[in-house]
Amino acid sequence: MFTGDNVLGHGTAVFEDLPTYIHSLTRMAEQFGGRAYPAHGAVIEDGRAKIQDYIRHRKEREDQIVQVLSRPSGNSSEATGWLSMDIVKIIYKDVPESLHLAAEGGVLQVLRKLDGENKVQLDQETGRWRLEQRKPTL
Fold this sequence. Notes:
Elements: E1 2-4, H1 18-31, E2 37-38, H2 47-70, H3 84-91, H4 100-116, E3 120-123, E4 128-131
Parallel strand pairs: 1-2
Antiparallel strand pairs: 3-4
Helix pairs in contact: 1-2, 2-4, 3-4
């Protein structure tokens, strides 16, 4: 299968909409049977496994972000939620700060996906993200 820029022979793919990207990867994995021919990098012998790695990595990153959002935030009882860059500083603590701005783009992609699934919410005034507070059903 020609995977284009969805699955690369090296590095990681850049995308604009995480739910659409995951959907595309899932459909590719369902149809796959052999080598992957990416737009960049070497031919991938086991294309399905590589696609599954991409999906697994995205799920792990989502889980990390949810774990951070589950923690109390800030130094003040007034601070509720997390700024996206504060999430980056925790998840990417071992990555040079010069790459944090790029990493924030990926974190925001995950947050927007979770927002679309009604799992998180953004306080428009403060720019802070938090897990969705669901009212108990009676």
